[in-house]
Amino acid sequence: MKLLYCAIDQVVPGSVGGSVHVQAVAEGLARLGHDVHVATGIAGPLPTGPVWHQLGTPFSRPHLRLLRMRAVASLAGTVRPHVIMERYHNFGGEGVLAARRLGVPAVLEVNAPVVDYRGSAKHTLDRALLGQPLRRWREWQCRHADLIVTPLVRILPPFVPASRVLEIEWGADTESFRQDVTGPTPFTRKPGDVVLVFAGAFRPWHGAVHLVRAMRLLRERGHANVMAVMIGAGPELERVRAESAGLDSVVFTGAVAHGVMPACLAAADIGIAPFDVAAHKPLQLGFYWSPLKVFEYMAAGLPVVAPDVDRLRHIVRHEREGLLYDSSMADGLANAIEALLDPARRAALGRAARERAESEFSWAAHCRRLEQAIAAVVSGGGRPACAS
């Protein structure tokens, strides 16, 4: 099967979730024997397998994606794919348009809400415009997609039938992320340390500040051997640094290349995902992320500590692959970390996390299910199986 994957608002290779996702899906489908062409921004050398086409957004602005619709249509006319898959954006649709022009099926990957949440500024603006063009365009993309791939069906318009939806988690590279990986890391652990790791883009809803506050509580309780490694950069970084004043056990590495992350996680003991759902209004619709960091923690054999919210309960089962805490309690995160200072308990949960990542949350598993659903659409029959 020949497939054109349009993800022109992403840049690969990269360390952010979207970049990692696009590269992993393209490579995974190519490994399954498909002829995969990818239209995306390119920032450096890429591995062989897929065919990469440099076609980023104008001025690196995703909101201008549709200005590339003729270029995407031209590429599609040259490649002549059996199917076109597009990574959804409010102002996208160039892949779906190209599929209609060629008369081939369109697959839409939806990672962010198509529907508006209560109080959305976008919704208010749209209502002020004649005919709500923003909503109508988003819904047009969904109406003309033959298959929609998403981690949470609730972020789709209610008119989309279940027969056109594949509800599926994203994943981790379980070959690269393992417990036995070695290599240089941007931090040093001392004998006897228990290393907590947070990896993220330091946005308010990533909750990094809550880990620093938990570290302060753990220090007050006498746990001097606990170390927190904060990997990444973003708008909240300086606030989190300020919150950590006086805590020499909190280390900030800055952003690191994704290829360094396996060694970083292998050198840690507990993966922390302190999401703050109240800090991101779209999460009123539900926890629609399929969190890359959590899958990579699990693949690395780390027990995961995360807040007890809807979909995270499915990914990290309490007392099985990690611990979930009540985020309404000021000491909830600290208590969960304290409960994992027992090495035997950490080891048992970490083994279970690795096993589940291999069986359910690998990119290989994701791509096999995606392949089956796309093949059914291309052949004109079949119904994609939904995973709850």
Full CATH superfamily name of the largest domain: Glycogen Phosphorylase B
Overall pLDDT level: 94
Tell me how many strands there are: 13
What CATH first level of the largest domain would be assigned? Answer: Alpha Beta
- Class from secondary-structure proportions: alpha/beta
Net shape: globular
Major β-sheet annotation:
7 strands, parallel
CATH architecture of the largest domain: 3-Layer(aba) Sandwich
Uncertain segments:
382-388
CATH fold title of the largest domain: Rossmann fold
- Total domain modules: 2
Along the chain, the helix and strand elements come as: EHEEHEHEHHEEEHEHEHEHEHEHHH
Could you characterize what this model shows?
The chain is of the alpha/beta class. The protein folds into two domains: 2-171 and 362-379, 3-Layer(aba) Sandwich (Rossmann fold); 194-360, 3-Layer(aba) Sandwich (Rossmann fold). Helices cover 35% and strands 17% of the residues. The chain is built from 13 helices and 13 strands. Strands 3-2-1-4-5-6-7 form a seven-stranded parallel β-sheet, with helices on both faces. A six-stranded parallel β-sheet has the order 10-9-8-11-12-13, with helices on both faces. Helix 9 crosses helix 12 (343-360). The longest helix has 18 residues, at 343-360. It is globular. Residues 382-388 have low confidence and may be disordered.
